[in-house]
Amino acid sequence: MDATRQTLRELERVALELTSSIAPLRIGVVHDADDLDAMFRLRGAEIVERGWATPGSIPTGRDRDEYDDDAVQIAVFDAGDVVGACRLLLPSRQRLLPIERDFDLRLEPLGSVVQWSRLVLGRIHRGDPEHRLAMACFAALWLQTIRHGFDACAGAIAKPMLELYRAIGMDFQVLAAPRVVDGELRYPALSCAATVRSALTVMRRLVGSR
Fold first, then answer.
1. Buried-most residue among 20, 172, 185, 193 (CB within 10 A)?
2. E strand or H helix that includes residue 57
């Protein structure tokens, strides 16, 4: 087994430990229509709360776009309630990923990079100084990235989150100047196979600190 594949295997193992470490909360891929609706409502509530949109501009109270039907949707559950959400977008020949569209760029290698987006946590679950729940979402996204055959991801990341990732050992390559996307100034950033080892180190430290 080559070094990269071995690292990815180890990353998967540690990521599984990290997603399990948030018990009694649980996290995983969802398909159920009611759970998906709860995710879209949670996203809509955050958009309004942060002032990125008025209630009148999203009359259904749901944040949903043309990418959601094909996305890998991941939810965090507290008992039966959805309290967190994120999604994985796979590359397609039929359309650009949102980050490519919003920043007028093309992710390289073409067709080999996924996008992570719409990471949302309910208000009661924010504020953890260790960011354990956000990192569990990060781990769940890595699991799905690997399981779909990819090892590179991109995202439109606000500066505070970019600084947080770098502070804990994650490294992202900023691809272009920031733009206002989804109501906030964000940077298009790429994490590729070369940064998988740093992700593994961060996840192992988080699991070991419990």
1. 172
2. none
Task: Using a cut of 0.85, tell me whether the model's pTM lies above it.
Answer: yes
Residues 23-39: tens digit of each pLDDT: 999 999 999 999 999 99
Distances (CA, A) of 27 to 36, 78, 105, 126: 13, 9, 32, 16
For the chain, the domains span: 3-208
Token couple for 209: 């600190």
Supply 135's token pair. 């990192």
Assess whether the previous peptide bond of 129 is cis (omega < 30° from 0). no
pLDDT tens per residue across span 132-184: 888 889 889 989 998 999 988 999 999 888 887 777 667 788 999 999 998 88
* CATH number corresponding to 3-208: 3.40.630.30
If we measure between CA atoms, which residue out of 11, 140, 143 comes closest to residue 77? 140
